[in-house]
Write a structure and sequence with these properties.
The chain is an alpha+beta fold. It has two domains: 2-56 and 135-209 and 322-332, 3-Layer(bba) Sandwich (FAD/NAD(P)-binding domain); 57-133 and 212-304, D-Amino Acid Oxidase, Chain A, domain 2. The chain has seven helices and 20 strands. The chain has helices spanning 2-10, 48-67, 83-98, 109-115, 135-148, 193-200, 275-282, and strands at 17-19, 36-37, 71-72, 76-80, 105-108, 123-127, 131-133, 152-154, 159-164, 168-173, 178-181, 185-187, 212-221, 230-233, 246-248, 254-256, 261-263, 294-304, 316-319, 328-332. The strands form six sheets. Strands 13, 15, 16, 17 and 18 form a five-stranded antiparallel β-sheet that branches. A four-stranded mixed β-sheet has the order 5-6-4-14. A three-stranded antiparallel β-sheet has the order 2-7-3. A hairpin with a 3-residue loop joins strand 9 (159-164) and strand 10 (168-173). The longest helix has 20 residues, at 48-67. Bound molecules: flavin-adenine dinucleotide (FAD). Flavin-adenine dinucleotide binds next to strand 18.
Length: 339
């Protein structure tokens, strides 16, 4: 996120500085995800999550071609395995249309099986604008263009203090190694964006900025079924979860997930005991899979604004002038679009 902002701003402004605490950019949530270009199907209407997702989908494919970033418009199937789930497909399609997604098609069993012969399906939705992308190349391209425009990308530069005096004034890195004056800070620190807001002086409890961590685990499978599309079950009702789904990468490898596991700290181990719940979900639509075929793969952590069972929250993208911090723009809760 920070890299794309740096590219955009450096085309218009001199003296753009991107501070990254790690040895390289994009080593956290941006490299621990499904790399799916989502269509914007499920989000609640009127949410930034919905409008930015559909707009992002439209804006992303074209530059990928121009910038030579590997990507593939795989399409996605949302599959119903019983009559109750079949009824939900029509509702999902209508909901997506409310978000401006008009390219979904309802498929009968025969059509679904023609697209995905190894899957058990009674009916499905086909989303042609869902795809996958090499997110590392995308990030590299943002970084190269930002630097070409004159921005400085400073690695191993952890923001450790922000001082405000009639607005944002001074920023400190690495516990005082550098201090410099700045008029604007754009906080896109992902899982740490609530701490950065607190550093500036914002009461993150009162403003509802405190992040909760929700791990998404993935399992790979060997032997692997042959799938041609991203593949999702009809999601369980009244939850945020999309159900355990199958995503492909650009090498056509399949991984299942992510699931949802709220955790107290940021650490990236995977509990192998989750294999059983993955298997229970997957075997509904891929009956050929056996528990012993599933292997722990990777995980990422969503910086969520809502805890388990709490009301759904939108992204926070906010100029904090009215909070008393002119010059501070917070991006908080930029989590996985569950779509
Ligand atoms: C399991 C999972 C699956 C997902 N699947 C998809 C998907 O298929 N499609 C999709 O579009 N999105 C997906 N997402 C969401 C997507 O990954 C995130 O929206 C995106 O990566 C957020 O990027 P970011 O730049 O906000 O955060 P990050 O990538 O976490 O970047 C924040 C950066 O800030 C740096 N930083 C933090 N604190 C400091 C500090 N004090 N000083 C300096 N630097 C600091 C960090 O080191 C990091 O590099 C998924 C997320 C998860 C967890």
């Amino acid at each position: 996120m920070g890299l794309s902002i740096a590219e955009e701003l450096s085309a218009k402004y001199k003296r753009v500085l991107l501070l990254e605490k790690n040895d390289g950019c994009g080593q956290e949530t941006s490299s621990r995800n499904s790399e799916v270009i989502h269509a914007g199907i499920y989000y609640p209407h009127g949410f930034l999550k919905a409008s930015l997702c559909t707009e992002g989908n439209r804006l992303l494919y074209d530059p990928c071609g121009k910038r030579n970033i590997s990507h593939k418009r795989t399409g996605k199937l949302i599959v119903a395995v019983n009559d109750a789930k079949c009824e939900r497909l029509e509702k999902i399609k209508m909901h997506a249309e409310g978000n401006g997604v008009f390219d979904l098609t309802l498929l009968g069993k025969k059509q679904a099986l023609t697209l995905e012969p190894e899957v058990s399906a009674k009916a499905a939705i086909y989303s042609p604008s869902t795809g996958i992308i090499d997110s590392h190349s995308l990030m590299r391209s943002f970084s190269i263009n930002a630097e070409k425009n004159g921005a400085v990308v400073a690695l191993r530069s952890k923001v450790t203090a922000i001082r405000a005096k009639d607005g944002i004034d001074e920023l400190e890195t690495n516990g005082g190694e550098y201090r410099f004056h700045t008029r604007v800070v754009i906080n896109s620190a992902g899982l740490y964006s609530d701490s950065i807001a607190a550093m500036a002086g914002i009461d993150i409890e009162r403003h509802g900025y405190r992040l909760k961590y929700c791990k998404g685990n993935y399992f790979s499978t060997s032997p692997a079924p042959k799938l041609n599309h991203l593949f999702y079950p009809v999601p369980p009702e009244n939850t945020e979860s999309l159900g355990i789904h199958a995503t492909l990468d650009l090498g056509n490898r399949i991984k299942f997930g992510p699931d949802s596991q709220y955790v107290d700290e940021i650490e990236y181990s995977i509990d192998g005991r989750r294999r059983e719940s993955f298997y229970q979900s997957i075997q509904n639509y891929l009956p050929g899979i056996k528990p012993e075929h599933l292997h722990t793969e990777m995980c990422g952590i969503r910086p969520k604004l809502q805890g388990p069972g709490e009301a759904y929250r939108d992204f926070i993208i906010k100029d904090e002038s009215d909070t008393g911090y002119p010059g501070l723009i917070n991006l908080i809760g930029i989590e996985s679009p569950p779509d």
